[in-house]
Amino acid sequence: TRTHSFAAVDLGASSGRVMVARVGPGTLDLQEVHRFANRPVRTGGTLHWDVLALYRGVLDGLRAAGAAAGGPLAGVGIDSWAVDYGLLDADGALLGNPVHYRDTRTDGAPEKVAAALPPEELYAATGIQHLPFNTVFQLVAAQGTPQLAAAQQLLLIPDLISYWLTGEAGTEITNASTTQLVDPRTRTWSPVVAARLGIDLGLFPPLRSPGDPAGPLRSGVLAETGLTGPVPVTAVGSHDTASAVVAVPADGGGDGSGFAYIATGTWSLAGLELDRPVLTEASRAANFTNELGVDGTVRYLRNIMGLWLLQECLRTWEAQGDPQHLAALLDGAARAAPLRSVVDAGDPVFLAPDDMPRRIARACARTGQPEPRTPVETTRCVLDSLALAHRAAVEEAQALSGRTAGTVHVVGGGAHNTLLCRLTADATGLPVVAGPAEAAALGNVLVQARAAGVVGGGLAGLRALVRATQPLRYYRPAGDRSAWDEAADRIGTGCRGRRT
Ligand code: LFR
């Protein structure tokens, strides 16, 4: 059988990569062809994304993709982190560098929004968890700035890259849902929310769904990358988490008990796939989100601070002249005393870039636990805390949705982290299936390949292809579950969201 080569552009908070996959019936073979750093830049007190450096990385990656494919490229798809955007003027020129969601410009914006639209109503209309950096808060924070006044169009990050590659503008729906301006029941904009907050929905180009054409690469892009046209760009689940969930290797044919997933990386996104949103007050209180997924699904999940906690520790130690090797730290952490101290991995004190080991130590002290003193102890504290937060999210998602999960799938970069996977199995008391690590890129190419008619089927069919082709690792839960209950009690997260 013939295979076709598709390129996936996957932009993460710390690095971007371009991957090429050979896809055909029974074949899914992914290769990384280019990886580049994503280094935010602070100017004038504002933290920005260096979006032109990212675009250059995309162009370099597409050139490498063409070389690796050794034939025509059958398509390109783009996914990235959510919520952030660039503004364009009437000529389509970018107005300023997109602002990073970890920037402090949204301080005070949630209070301003709440005054115009109470959180209960905002949740009932959008089903999106409260994260202080949601696009609504960024837009309200930007109200009155000359840049927003001059803007004719708003493009979310993957849509901006797509626009530069093709000259055609659209708003992909899975990522649009993270703006907190979309109604998850109708899967279109909520005019009521926008009107109440003074947000002009006319800034957004028309909505697109995963699988929709997004235009061919422009001739200038073909010339710059050495690719032979035409090369179609296809809308995929352009929110990286939406693409990652497509590639969860779950067995659709099961016994009625469903699966939970944890998409790991800078964040851990832990929850369930549903066919309709849960918009109850209990769900809001537990801060669960109803982001839109591929094929009409809902990603019912909670954001957990994720491996950002560890990345930011590594950056701090390095800056303090005490650089650490991740492999050695994880080795040490695996042998360190378990559950000595834990922190709430959902606590917004960890959101902004800053001295992470100190913030972790202080959080431990505040809750009457021993402060981790060495990098190994801090690493163990982070991983125990993440596993504890994974457990809470998996359990509460089931309780709030009335669905059950018999397996936990860990996809994304954390699937390589043996200790994190083992602790997640122990904490949840459920078997963990770890992999694929490059779930976002795989979900990206699978949606393209299906749109091109190269593979068929619904999500179950795409997932069967992932299961049959990608290496996976299995972890059986072990140990004493009551130790995790006791640790959760120390930080008061054991029953978060189950209180009403
Ligand atoms: C993960 C992710 C999360 C989103 C966060 C910020 O990469 O996309 O899903 O909440 O980044 O955009």
From TrEMBL:
The keyword Kinase applies. The keyword Transferase applies. Residues 260-452 form the Carbohydrate kinase FGGY C-terminal domain. Coiled coil: none annotated. Keywords: ATP-binding, Disulfide bond, Kinase, Nucleotide-binding, Rhamnose metabolism, Transferase. It comes from the Bacteria. Residues 8-246 form the Carbohydrate kinase FGGY N-terminal domain. Belongs to the FGGY kinase family. This is Rhamnulokinase family protein.
